[in-house]
Amino acid sequence: MKLSRRNLLGLAATTLAVPRLPALAAGPIPLAPPRPHGAVPSARQLRWHALERYAFVHFSINTFTDREWGYGDESPALFDPSDFDADQIVASARAAGLRGLILTAKHHDGFCLWPSAHTAHSVRRSPWRGGRGDMVREVSDACRRQDLAFGVYLSPWDRNHAEYGRPAYLAYFRAQLRELLTNYGPLFEIWFDGANGGDGYYGGARETRQIDAPRYYDWPATWQLVRELQPDAAIWGQRGSDLRWVGNEDGHAGDPCWAAMDSGAFSIEKNHGGVRGGEVWRPAEVDVSIRPGWFWHAREDDQVKTVGRLMRIEFESVGRGAGLLLNLAPDRRGRIPERDAQVLREWGEAHAATFGRDLARGARARASQVRGNAAAYGAGRVLDGRGDTYWSCDDAVREAELMLTLPRPATFDVIRLREYLPLGQRVTTFALDVEERGGWREIARHQAIGSQRLVRLAAPVTTRRVRLRIVEAEACPAISEFALFRQPELLEPPTIARNAAGQVSLASEWPGAAIHYSLDGSTPGAGSPRYAAPFALPDGGTVKAVCLRRTKASAVASRSFDLAKAGWRIAAASAPGAEALLDEDPATLWRCPAGGELTLDLGAEHALTGFTLLPAAHLPAGHGAPLAYACHARRDDGDWQPAAQGEFANIEANAAVQTIRFDAARPARYLRLALTRAGGGQERIACAELGVLTR
Q1: How many CA atoms lie within 13 Å of 184's alpha carbon, on the beta-carbon side?
Q2: Distance between CA atoms of residues 168 and 276, nearest Å
Q3: I want to staple 371 with a disulfide (CB 3.0 to 4.6 A). Which of 383, 392, 638, 671 is the partner?
Q4: What pLDDT, on a 0 to 100 scale, did the predictor assign at position 443?
């Protein structure tokens, strides 16, 4: 069946309330359905759960300034995509099997992708479409044409608006929100970013403005506006919203990841894993980008996530009961780049190949206990392909078993389980077993099922019988699906890395594969050099590599390198251990007080165009990420000259490499870097690697 938005919402609507009599029942049922347990989802949350995977699209003035966070002083004249194609963007998301799309209508820089009546800082003052364009309109129309649900992102922080931080801005913010809620049809989600307050243009004031976000924004009043105008839209944002941030931008939820939350103080740990027994249903959404950054940057063209990585993200987000919001970054044409589009298409094919055939279909199901011995709650309900039926037990039953007997032995490595969500999350711990040589062997044990639990086995198993054991539950189980799948073989490209000595190494997890590479930009094949040991690469070189096995080949991997760190030294540092920034090992960290600085000696003079800084993937206790920097450069016999100063945008949520470009190339041997501010209110900073750009 074609899964249109209408079909999707219709399917979700069947689970919006606990029925008095379950579907498919013939005649009166002697026992009522189980009572809901704990927090349960609302109708709009159930519709959101049914989407599972959907797209984010970050495209704005930052695409043309090569920034992640704009300052707010950017001229609208910069915004001029040469070949904007909303249908190509939406089609790329649809090819991946994504079911919705959220557009960043306004990011922190305040530039609006629609001709807002309340500001001139919008597409209305840009060259695009002669100032008569409306990008929100074009994308929302394209979503409707291609049966994708549509949503919008509106940044509460506006670094352009003169009144930000004062009461007048709230009226402006809500007026813009009203435009988006009333002019673009039904919205499935509204996204309010948590980044608020800091440096900005602010109408020319060029100052820092800090706010108390909960008090300043008065979120209940904003939620009420959304509820009045878009009652079916799920709200992502602060306390009181429908959905919660998972606590990272790396692409994974906690394991387990409970859908409920409590009313206690905020913590990243609670967002990551939820709260078992929490009083409100507020499931996690995993937001992650297909590239390291959220906006398009040419330097990241060879860093698009692979199909294998996207599949892993899916298992660690959707497969743990969260929603997956995958960001796509159109380039300056206004189109999804070809490499990104190819990966999305291949991911869609891999997803369909994995979940297109349920190997449990045709099986016989038998349970250790059935609620009231009623057929309406029988074990076979987990195999009927419906979301509104379920196997359940008598109220007093907390431990139970359900066994599938397949028509013939099947080989599988993925198991999918679902609970009947209108009754809440009931199962605490479950185990899975397979029958082998007349006995049972446990192959997995986890906590939490919820909207969906995907169990990915380390290796395929072959059997005729598989068993689900409810080991611990807070209420009698209500299981709506028990499905078995086999993953296709994914042909992943090799990894390309360079060590501290400047040598390049290639590796593959594909057993028996030969790795071939080229250094001239050509696509390597069987006739190209075969990798055997690390090799030296001239500064500024590019490596391309491919894995070959029999007649199969993985996708080509490509990575460009700048200066090798061999011969570099730390000439001075305000704290010991700064050499960790040069060892090409992201696990070793330099720790310094906020405001700490170091001087790097490159050993020779180069034309420097910028620097890179890799933050710590896992911050030590008492340390924050560096939020701001000041960089100076010096020739061998010259004075220090300022090279760049500013902030590392979004570094606290996204621990990706930070790339800072100078406004012009600077001949220099020495680089002095000061890390002027720490994140998280900490007094110390930790970071992993420092690099230098020469092109």
Answers
A1: 33
A2: 41
A3: 392
A4: 98
Q: What pLDDT shows up at residue 144? A: 98
Is the omega angle on the peptide bond into residue 36 within 30 degrees of 0, that is, cis?
no
Contact criterion met (CB below 8 Å) for 428 and 393: no
Rg of the chain over Cα atoms, rounded to whole angstroms, equals 27
229: left (phi over 0), alpha (psi -120 to 50) or beta: alpha
- Residues 578/687, Cβ–Cβ less than 8 Å: no
Spatial CA neighbour of 451 closest among 489, 424, 485? 424
Q: Parallel, antiparallel, or unpaired for β 364-367 and 400-419?
A: antiparallel
Q: Which amino acid is at 409?
A: P
Q: Are strands 53-57 and 495-498 parallel, antiparallel or unpaired?
A: unpaired
Strands, E assignment, 201-279: 207-209, 234-236, 244-245, 260-261
**In the prediction, which pLDDT does 419 show?**
98
Within 10 Å of residue 183's Cβ, how many Cβ atoms? Answer: 12
d(CA 384, CA 162): 58
As beta bridge partners, residue 412 has: 461
H or E, element range at 307: helix 307-316
| pLDDT, position 13 | 38
Local structure of residue 35 (DSSP, 8 states): P
> Which of 116, 111, 115, 203 has its CA nearest to residue 165?
203
Q: List beta partners, residue 55.
A: 101, 326
Residue 634 exposure: Cα atoms within 13 Å on the Cβ side: 15
The structure tokens 């040991």 sit at 533
Instruction: Please enumerate in sequence order all residues whose Cβ is within 8 A of that of 76, keeping only pairs 6 or more positions apart, or say none.
Output: 61, 111, 120, 121, 122, 123, 124, 125, 126
Give the residue carrying structure tokens 């040419």: 298
Q: CA 242 → CA 62, 223, 227, 236, 310, distances in Å? A: 29, 10, 11, 6, 25
Q: Do 369 and 431 touch, CB atoms closer than 8 A?
A: no
Say if strands 323-328 and 284-289 run parallel, antiparallel, or are unpaired: parallel
DSSP for residue 687:
E
Whose CA is closest to 71, among 117, 113, 111?
111
Averaged pLDDT, groups of 10, the chain, 695 residues long: 36 35 41 95 98 98 95 98 98 98 98 98 98 98 98 98 97 98 98 91 95 92 96 92 95 98 90 96 98 93 92 98 98 97 97 98 97 95 96 97 98 98 98 96 98 97 98 98 95 86 88 89 90 85 87 82 86 96 93 96 94 93 95 95 92 88 94 94 95 88
pLDDT at 577: 96
Containing H/E element for 471? strand 453-473
pLDDT at 358: 98
What ranges make up the beta strands (E) of 35-139? 53-57, 100-106
What three-state secondary structure class fits 216? Answer: helix
Quote the tokens at residue 514. Answer: 């030969």
- The SS3 call for residue 220 is helix
Q: Are 328 and 294 in contact (CB under 8 A)?
A: no
Rounded to a whole number of angstroms, the distance between the first and last alpha carbons of the chain is: 51
Residue 143's H or E segment, with its range, is helix 135-145
User: Tens digit of pLDDT for each residue in 508-534?
Assistant: 988 788 999 999 878 898 899 999 999
Q: Give the pair of three-digit tokens for residue 553.
A: 């080949």
What tokens does 407 get? 């028509």
